[in-house]
């Protein structure tokens, strides 16, 4: 078994669960394909596609 990298652990602690969840999601090939197939990306501050966000369990404050 490989020992965890202490730098990775500290980054998770520093950034929180949301950052860890995002890191796992962005590495998911199915998510990456779905994201790439979006017709366009929302402008900053605009709502994300509701169906896409609901499917992937994305919640934005």
Which features does this protein show?
mainly alpha; Trans_reg_dom; Transcriptional regulator-like domain-containing protein
Uncertain parts: none
Q: Could you report the average pLDDT, rounded to the nearest whole number?
A: 78
Largest beta-sheet characterization: none
Q: Whole-Å distance between the termini? A: 38 Å
Summarize the amount of helix as a percent range: 55-70%
Structure description:
By secondary structure, the protein is mostly helical. The mean pLDDT is 78. It contains four helices and no strands.
Offer a concise description of the structure.
Residues 8-61 form the Transcriptional regulator-like domain. With 61 residues, the chain is mainly alpha-helical.
């Amino acid at each position: 078994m490989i020992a965890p990298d202490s730098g990775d652990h500290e980054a998770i602690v520093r950034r929180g669960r949301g950052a860890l969840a995002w890191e796992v999601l962005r590495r998911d090939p199915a998510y990456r394909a779905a994201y790439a197939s979006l017709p366009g990306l929302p402008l900053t501050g605009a709502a994300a596609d509701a169906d896409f966000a609901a499917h992937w369990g994305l919640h934005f404050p």
